[in-house]
């Protein structure tokens, strides 16, 4: 089970407000607030989404640009981001990742991975 601390750290790692994070996950601001204050727990599906997002941010295969990820979440929601990540060849090892992977198997392209990568020039400056 993902803890309230892990949820808050995940949101903060992305540089998202509770409202931005809530919108990306398709829940209300108050839901995220309750998760982070340990007054409520995500549903099983929501927890799978959070774990998949955490795995994506902690992926050792590629340096994920949290700002790009935040923008993508705002545009596509969590399902779209996870689908693109899997299509790009990133591994998401939970039931949600496995389900999406089975749907898009064989459609991966290397260029999709660039959506998640940190800009090399930008990363070298820091």
Automatic annotation (TrEMBL):
Domain annotation HTH cro/C1-type: ranges: 7-43
Swiss-Prot/TrEMBL keywords: DNA-binding, Membrane, Transcription, Transcription regulation, Transmembrane, Transmembrane helix
Family annotation (Gene3D superfamilies): lambda repressor-like DNA-binding domains
Recorded coiled-coil stretches: none
Superkingdom of origin organism: Bacteria
CDD domains given in the database record: HTH_XRE
Residue spans crossing the bilayer: 73-92
Entries under InterPro entries matching the protein: Cro/C1-type_HTH, HTH-type_reg/antitoxin, Lambda_DNA-bd_dom_sf
PROSITE patterns named among the record's database cross-references: HTH_CROC1
Record-given protein name: Transcriptional regulator XRE family
Annotated source species: Candidatus Brocadia sinica JPN1
